[in-house]
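does this look right to u?? adenosine monophosphate version
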Amino acid sequence: MNLTKFFFEKTTLVPDKPALVFEEATYTYSDVAEAVKQYANLLARLGVKKGDRVALQLPNCAEFVFLHLANLSLGAITLPLNTGYRPEEINYFLDDSGSSIFVADDEKFIPDISGQKSNGKVQTIIRKGNSANSLQALLKESQKSGDTVPDYPTQADDVALLCYTSGTTGKPKGAMITHRNLITNAVALQKVWKWTENDILLNVLPMFHIHGLCVALHGALNAGSTIIIHEKFEPKKCIETIGKQKCTMFMAVPTIYYRLMEVWPELNPDLSSMRVFISGSAPLSEELFERFYSATGFRILERYGMTETQIIASNPYEEERRKSKSVGYALPGIQIRIASASGVDVKPGEIGEVLVKGENVFKGYWQMPKKTRDSFLGEWFRTGDLGYQDEKDEMRLYLVGRSKELIISGGYNVYPKEVEDVINQHSAVEESAVVGISDREYGEKVVAAVVLKEKQPAAFEDTLIKFCKGKLASYKCPKKIVFLDKLPRNALGKIQKHLIIEGFPKG
Ligand code: AMP
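got this back:
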């Protein structure tokens, strides 16, 4: 089983059908297959082989798609990296994963890896420009050396993707996602969302996240449909594209739907071709669901998933059965249980942790056997999300919160510990506590309470935010900092984060 092979076997019958549209360029399924072959040649020439890790820190672009599929065709593992990651973060990912190739968008994105364990072992490729290590120059060079036809040397349970997710202990961990996980998920989504070769999906989500990569891209290629990809989300361009290109599907995070609503009245979009709007990665509020419905006549279809499991549950395709505040029913082939903290099933309707089992569940965390063991209860993966099932409605799932400390801002996950570790590195800081406060646009906003060693000038809040931005992707950095004499603690000395949250004005 190999994801690239799986896609291509299905689409050899529709070679001239547009598969991918990026900006002005359209690539048919045979164009994509040809490009993937060329890119596989290049990677093989650079020494990439089965099991190697290839890190891509790229914005949405056609090259991302070709590199990813080529990489998988060789049995290697794609490691997608957020384009907002700072050099320190990149160094950690390259070192931890032992990547052999790092593909950057531009010269200016190459981190200084001198002094790192990976130093000297990572070859860098630059997407833009004509330097000797640019993608174009390397592709040209590799074409001289003849074809290395990929032979898809993988088994179903071999790792295809290594996706780093933040962790409660601070350092992000690499979730190992197999070819079987990816194929199972794409096939299940095709069925529940009635995805066909006639669909045209507009994707404005970044492909360095599983939402853009595994749900949007893989879903579209699996169905033999067309995917239009924008480099980034621009509300006006997005709305115009839906009408002009006769899109039938759109998927986004709640923050994007919020921003679309802000410009909707002035743009009066043409939605005559649309059949479904899908939302996930963060809770969709009832208010936004209703606002979108009154503005467009469409009930957003909300689904629930995570990096480690792909999509777990989805609202039904039938519009009248879509409900706000519920993430729907388990996908075919997936089982859901709700358990107490001690791992015992709660009664239907009671709140507990959502546990998941199925062929969609990942293989474990990269080189972290203990963390992997801790995240499973027997065969069941512990999502860390809290929810309940409605027995009277075919065990429909509702999420109510999280058992782990996680902030979801604009669809991106932020673990407070990682941010606190960075704030605490500043020489003027005694200690800090990072929390998420609710925000209409982002769902949650990262903020911090900080105790200083000694009084600082009034502008110190900006200085500290800037300090964080030098070390962390900007979505993880606090938007606001309050300075306290001491952090609120309970009798056992545990920081009472709810008191800190209450102290911030709501956004
Ligand atoms: P990620 O691994 O970045 O995809 O984030 C996964 C987390 O996002 C889950 O564990 C949930 O906490 C959250 N999440 C995803 N979809 C939803 C949803 N529809 N409603 C509420 N939370 C969600």
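Residues 3-9+27-154 form a domain with the Rossmann fold fold (CATH 3.40.50.980). idk if thats expected tbh
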